[in-house]
UniProtKB/TrEMBL annotation:
This is 7-carboxy-7-deazaguanine synthase. The gene is queE. GO terms for molecular function: 4 iron, 4 sulfur cluster binding; carbon-nitrogen lyase activity; magnesium ion binding; S-adenosyl-L-methionine binding. Pathway: Purine metabolism; 7-cyano-7-deazaguanine biosynthesis. Coiled coil: none annotated. It catalyses: 6-carboxy-5,6,7,8-tetrahydropterin + H(+) = 7-carboxy-7-carbaguanine + NH4(+). Mg(2+) binds at residue 56. Residues 34-253 form the Radical SAM core domain.
Amino acid sequence: MPVSDTVARDDTDAEGDRLPINELFASLQGEGKLAGVPSTFVRTSGCNLRCWFCDSFHTSWEPTHAWMSLDEIVAEVESRSPEHVVVTGGEPLVHDETDALLSALADDYHLTVETNGTLETDAPVDLASISPKLASSTPTPDNAPADVDPGVWTERHENARVDLDALASLVEHAADFQLKFVVTGRDDIDEIESLVADVRGVAAREVRDSDVLLMPEGQTREQLARTRTEVADLAAAFGYRYTPRLHVDLWNDAPET
């Protein structure tokens, strides 16, 4: 297991802006262009979408968190050794205070923001890790997590999961970016091809095939074993990059990884 410790505390009375923090820990980045890089993860709670396969259930379907001031978050980040910080969720950009946190960390850390691509930011971002949600992510009564009724989220998620203006803004704004698709199988590739073409059509920045990453869906080693080979074959066939989920391969579905 990596060296990591979740911040768990009662609501703080500290003055200033605060964020709902689900986890704050140090580990290895498990996905994307920076896979394997030691990083401090700041995981906010709350999301504007509801993927049926969400791997951070307690930031979306049943959000849990402790409120922390920006000063407290920065102090916790500074107490850890990694030079890379990953602000993730949930969807961190649903919170206005996330921009202030990014600005506070920008001078001293490489900043990755993991986002579903439906919201924009003007804050400093070194790597925008954008994960547009495909039709296969939409929750239904048949695929929703156990004991969860998707209710209004089926329609709400489907209507909100792609915002081309926000995708273009994120691609153009960050120092670097990646379009990281969670792939459930071969049926996803036509939509990926179409969406990549749409982003290329609206973004004032080149989107190379090497900026497009295909990642197998799966929250456990057993689930990944069923999807990784097919997804790797798709990446090779269509000229995109394959990204593993190192944290799942190494630590399965353990928290703080």
